[in-house]
Write a structure and sequence with these properties.
Layout lengths: L2 H26 L20 H7 L4 H10 L3 E4 L14 E6 L10 E3 H23 L3 E8 L20 E9 L4 E3 H4 L5 H14 L4 E3 L11 E4 L5 E2 L1
Parallel strand pairs: 7-9
Antiparallel strand pairs: 1-2, 2-3, 4-5, 5-6, 5-8, 7-8
This protein binds zinc ion.
The site of zinc ion (ZN) has 4 residues, from strand 5.
């Protein structure tokens, strides 16, 4: 057998092994870890979650259908809802999610809203049940859309694109209030809960900032779906 034929057979063998490998992975890998399977917002968070959320950024139709399937209530803003400095394109108002927020209206891009739902469903809700045996009655927020720069810079904040939300704490159904400024550094169930919801935020949002990041975040978490990648 000449060398060319041997090489071709080898290459075909490798290609077949790769295809077989992909088919086996696609068949047996759980959906949250499988980048080939479409995202479902009720899937547990997995290693492919960031990748799959990035893929719905530019596919608004798919994003709306995912929110519909997860029974997230929203209203689409008209295209001219923003300002010249902060145009709001494909931005939604959150009408109903898994838990109520202290601020309304919350204006968000679809993929920020999708990420927020995953965080509520797979991070906040189970942790509150597990650690306090109480559901979250209200997420305390400083809001989402705000036409402004990142503090101390001349760069537009992701808030100016309605692509971020600031969370300052949680009020549980049992009356307990968990506050980022007060409890972040506390060695307690409340401190542990805050660390865990921030860590869970890192697995969903592109950028998840806590009081450890800088003094501007001493009293809240910042979660955004911009192009950055930071967990601090
Ligand atoms: Zn923020």
């Amino acid at each position: 057998m000449n060398n060319t034929l041997t090489r071709t057979i080898k290459q075909l063998g490798i290609a077949a092994a790769v295809v077989l490998g992909i088919l086996v992975l696609n068949r047996f890998l759980p959906p949250q870890h499988n980048p080939l399977r479409p995202i479902d917002l009720t899937d547990p968070i997995g290693i492919a979650t960031h990748f799959k959320l990035a893929r719905i950024k530019d596919d608004h139709g798919l994003c709306y259908s995912l929110l519909d399937k997860a029974e997230v209530g929203y209203t689409r803003l008209p295209e001219d809802a923003g300002t010249e400095r902060c145009p709001l394109q494909d931005v939604l108002v959150l009408d109903r999610s898994l838990m109520p927020y202290s601020v309304a209206p919350l204006r968000m891009t679809c993929h920020e809203m999708a990420a927020l739902f995953i965080w509520e469903n797979d991070v906040v809700r189970p942790l509150a049940e597990e650690m306090f045996a109480s559901p979250v009655e209200e997420v305390l927020s400083y809001g989402s859309f705000s036409c402004r720069n990142i503090a101390g810079t001349n760069r537009l904040s992701e808030h100016a694109r309605a692509n971020a939300i600031d969370i300052k704490g949680f009020r549980l159904a049992n009356g307990e209030v968990i506050d980022v400024r007060e409890h972040w550094r506390e060695t307690s169930a409340r401190g542990d809960f805050l660390k865990a919801v921030h860590e869970g935020g890192c697995k969903v949002f592109s950028v998840a900032l806590s009081p450890d990041y800088n003094a501007a975040h001493a009293d809240h978490f910042h979660f955004d779906m911009g192009n950055g990648s930071l967990c601090r």
